[in-house]
Each structure stands twice: as structure tokens, then as C-alpha cells.
Design brief:
This is Alpha/beta fold hydrolase. This protein is an alpha/beta fold. Helices cover 33% and strands 15% of the residues. It has helices at residues 39-45, 71-81, 97-111, 140-150, 155-158, 161-180, 206-210, 236-247, and strands at 12-13, 23-28, 49-54, 90-95, 118-122, 192-198, 220-225.
Length: 254
């Protein structure tokens, strides 16, 4: 067995190191989310796929660090952290805000000569589709109401005022990053894109998800699942099968 005990640093969580893996999946959390959201994904895909989950500043063990409220800046920082991890073919998976961030990371990786194999864009409209959203400017009650409606936060957390006070700054900052993001026109990516969406998601319509097709010259696939914004939580198995199918052909040097 190959020894691969390299340091991950504060930005990357590697819950189940897979030194024999031939591909690497990089996961980007949703607004207010943390790397631990992808712990079950890492456990399920290891050891065939080496899973890295991005940990944004301002949450969990990074709670004392200032949040990054700009997607472009966040993408620059993540790409720098991924430098040592490009020894295997990369695949990117992002949910909600994380999908937009994964897209900007993919643009930067391609520009630097490292094209990921596939971008999985989950629960997010295409970068070129804009909505005028200003939840990040609302008071705490409105913000809590919004995240409660999306069901992206544990009900026990929402009912604990002390925990809420701790996590709301990160959620608000992430909302600001997502809502103020504006796509910079540029050449489409050269990688495959798979868009995933829930059929009752109020945050993104199937048409908005299908518009991801405009952002690649390679193949595009739209997968619609029953459920709302966090349809992922109820459809883990088929999503994992999609990831496995898309990464099975990737090898070092491909």
C-alpha cells in the first residue's frame, strides 16, 4: 500500500485517504455548509476515489477566521490550495453556491493547463442566469426563515439560539458571495458538465439548470430528481453512481 500522509492544511479535509485511487473528487459545500457535509460521500467512494472536501473560512474549526464574501476571491484561494493535489485527474462537485465556486475553480484550472474531467453542478442555476436576490441584506429572522425553508440546516440547530448566533455570520457571508456573484463572459469550458436539480427546488428551475449546457464545448447531461433544494440528501445512491460512472474512465495522464 502506498504511503500518502501529505498535509491537507485548513482548506482541505481528506476524511478517508485513498492512496491507491486513480482519480480525485473535490467537493464544494453549499452556502453556510462545511466540509463535513461530504463525509458520507468520502466514506462511500473511498478507496476507489480520493475525496477532498473544501472547508471555507468562518465555520467549525475555522470559525475565528474572517469569511470570504466574494466567489472570485474564494476561487483564487481554493485553486492555490489545490496545487499539490493535481497529481491525479480531478473531478469537481459543488452544491448550490458550491457549484458556482466549482465552476470558477474549473475556469482557473483550465487556464493553468489542468482541466478537470467533469464538473457536477448541483442545485444551482447556470452562471449566466442571474436572479436579483438580497437575502444577505435581510435581518436575522428573514435569513433563518430562508434557510429553514430550504431545509439545509439541521432542525435542532435552528432551534438552538446559541448555535444559531455562531453560524449565522458564515451563512450571511456565503449568501452575500452567492447573491453578488456575476458571471464574467469568457470561453466555455472544455470539460463535461453534469447538472443536477430537484424538481421542486425554488432556488433553481430545470431550465436554469439546463443553461449549464452553454458553458461547455464538451458533453452535457441534465439529471432531474424528485425533491427540493437539498434533494441530494434523499438520493445519495444514484448521485454516487453518477460520480463513479463519470470517473471510472479517468486515469493518471488522461
Amino acid at each position: 500500500m502506498t504511503d500518502d500522509s501529505r498535509e491537507t492544511g485548513p482548506w482541505i479535509r481528506r476524511f478517508h485517504p485513498a492512496p491507491e485511487a486513480r482519480t480525485r473528487l473535490v467537493c464544494f459545500p453549499h452556502a453556510g455548509g462545511s466540509a463535513t457535509y461530504y463525509f458520507p460521500v468520502s466514506r462511500a467512494l473511498s478507496p476507489a476515489i480520493d475525496v477532498l472536501a473544501i472547508q471555507y473560512p468562518g465555520r467549525q474549526d475555522r470559525r475565528q477566521e474572517p469569511c470570504v464574501e466574494d466567489i472570485e476571491e474564494l476561487a483564487d484561494l481554493v485553486v492555490e490550495e489545490l496545487g499539490p493535489w493535481k497529481d491525479l485527474p480531478l473531478t469537481l462537485f459543488g452544491h448550490s453556491m458550491g457549484a458556482t465556486l466549482a465552476f470558477e475553480v474549473a475556469r482557473r484550472l483550465e487556464a493553468a493547463g489542468t482541466s478537470p474531467g467533469t464538473l457536477f453542478a448541483s442545485g444551482r442555476r447556470a452562471p449566466s442566469r442571474v436572479r436579483d436576490e438580497r437575502v444577505h441584506l435581510a435581518d436575522d429572522d428573514r435569513l433563518i426563515a430562508d434557510i429553514t425553508q430550504l431545509s439545509g440546516t439541521d432542525a435542532a440547530v435552528l432551534g438552538d439560539p446559541e448555535i444559531l448566533r455562531m453560524i449565522l455570520p458564515a451563512i450571511r457571508s456565503d449568501y452575500k458571495a452567492a447573491e453578488t456573484y456575476r458571471y464574467r463572459p469568457g470561453p466555455p469550458l472544455g470539460l463535461d458538465i453534469v447538472a443536477l436539480v430537484g424538481d421542486t427546488d425554488q432556488q433553481v428551475t430545470a431550465d436554469e439548470a439546463a443553461a449549464w449546457r452553454e458553458h461547455t464545448t464538451a458533453s452535457f447531461e441534465l439529471q432531474v430528481f424528485p425533491g427540493g433544494h437539498f434533494f441530494l440528501d434523499s438520493h445519495v445512491a444514484p448521485v454516487l453512481d453518477l460520480i463513479r460512472a463519470r470517473t471510472s474512465a479517468l486515469t493518471v495522464g488522461s
